[in-house]
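fwd from M.: "can u put these together and see what the complex looks like"

so here's what she sent:
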Amino acid sequence: QTVVTQEPSFSVSPGGTVTLTCGLSSVSVSTSYYPSWYQQTPGQAPRTLIYNTDTRSSGVPDRFSGSILGNKAALTITGAQTDDESIYYCVLYMGSGSWVFGGGTKLTVL
Amino acid sequence: EVQLVESGGGLVQPGGTLRLSCSASGFTFSGYAMNWVRQAPGKGLEYVSDISVNGGSTYYADSVKGRFTISRDNSKNTLYLQMSSLRTEDMAVYYCVKRGGWYNFDYWGQGTLVTVSS
């Protein structure tokens, strides 16, 4: 069973920079997994932030950026704002119409 | 503006059936693959199913394979999820999701809650 790993929680100060990661249990994450990132606040549907590793979705502020860092996909928030306090999910495409989500990272901005 | 509106959720007994619908607007529905993603109460997101633009190819998570059927009616701009042999672990908010062009989930509906309980 494929497991996608994310930090359960992270904290950042307003104006600070934070990098959330998305890994696989036994192999490196590469662009071939088309990593994408989603933001979800309580009671709301997810919102697409980043797709195809590093492409920002329409309307997403440029303080959000995606990359591959070492053997993981990464979401970096530069100049964090209080509105960024959310749960962030990554998902990897495993091929043959199959995706696996990470467990999500709860980001606190304080 | 892309809009995805799910309906059909509700309370069903274990072993029961339910059909979810998703009405799409604001884009050329027949030009995009579509997905269902679910979220159990207090839990993370889980991929459920994928369907190609013409419905000819369908895929399912192992957890629902053989019990759920995804389909679409491009003439009605509507996506469906037929769920049978429902289990308590299927209880979740089910999101209808438009696929993007890069194996990503593009636009999300607001979701419909499925409760499985006796």
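replying to her w this: Chain A touches chain B at residues 34, 36, 38, 40, 45-48, 51-52, 55, 57, 89, 91, 93, 96-104 (CB under 8 Å).
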